[in-house]
Write a structure and sequence with these properties.
7 helices; five-stranded parallel beta sheet; 10 strands; globular; alpha/beta; 27% helix; five-stranded mixed beta sheet
Length: 249
């Protein structure tokens, strides 16, 4: 058997990949994060599949489900929101599966920051304005940040920042970024990206915190800060330039 870590996408059920949907439809066991994964996706599971909501399970209990399925020779679809490569707690599960000798594969999904950019109708990298995107979070009650990855340090780069799991602490985010980006730097918050109740807030570092509080947002949101959000006057990319020699690989 195999455990398949599947990126379920940012929220809309139809944003799961074709490979993810096919894998889900063939697995007799599905472990899903019920607080984040759209329940419509469970309709893709085969009839009689064992469905386990992991939102209230600890790591030991989740791995126990995988071990039980392994012993029975049954594949497992492990549904995670967004993409497994970012803020998914997949690494610790893989480590346990390695120790138990249980094979696994990863099926990528659409990450939350990509869905947020789509909602904003913005490319996060713009020629001559910004070519770097930093995906990060802030230290809070959960796991602390490693040395050198605090906002004050990352902010010195001037790169576009995408912050996950930070909306509750938007005042702190603004305070730490203001010295590096300035009050007029474009900022946005996208909540429930791609879902029917999606909410998009646009502003600057000067007013985005007030908008977040007025909207009552505390979770399931990403904060995006950077100059490319407001870029209008910039040179066209070399990719489609008429001056580019298209006969050179």
């Amino acid at each position: 058997m195999t455990v398949y870590f599947i990126g379920a996408g940012p929220g809309a059920a139809d944003l799961i990949t074709v490979r993810g949907a096919r894998t889900l439809a063939a697995a007799p066991v599905c472990l899903y994060a019920g607080s984040l994964v759209p329940r419509e996706l469970l309709a893709e599971c085969p009839d009689g599949a064992r469905l386990v909501d992991t939102s209230r399970l600890n790591l030991d209990e989740i791995i126990a489900e995988c071990v039980s399925a392994h012993e029975a020779g049954r594949d497992v679809a492990r549904l995670h929101s967004g993409d497994p490569s970012v803020f998914s707690a997949v690494a610790e599960q893989m480590r346990r599966l390695d120790a138990a000798g249980i094979p696994y594969e990863v099926v990528p999904g659409v990450p939350a920051f990509a869905a947020a950019a789509a909602a904003l109708k913005r490319e996060l990298t713009v020629p001559t304005v910004g070519q770097t995107v930093i995906l990060t979070r802030i230290a809070q009650q959960a796991t602390p940040m490693p040395p050198g990855e605090d906002l004050a340090t990352l902010g010195r780069s001037g790169a576009l920042l995408v912050l996950h799991l930070a909306t509750r602490y938007v005042d702190r985010v603004v305070e730490e970024l203001l010295p590096h980006y300035g009050a007029e730097c474009p900022a946005a918050v996208v909540a429930m990206a791609s879902r029917p109740d999606e909410l998009v807030l646009r502003g600057t570092l000067a007013d985005i915190a007030g908008q977040v509080k007025e909207a009552g947002l505390v979770r399931t949101s990403v904060i995006i800060v950077g100059r490319t959000l407001g870029a209008e006057q910039f040179r066209d990319s070399h990719l489609y330039s008429p001056e580019r020699d298209r006969h050179v690989c």
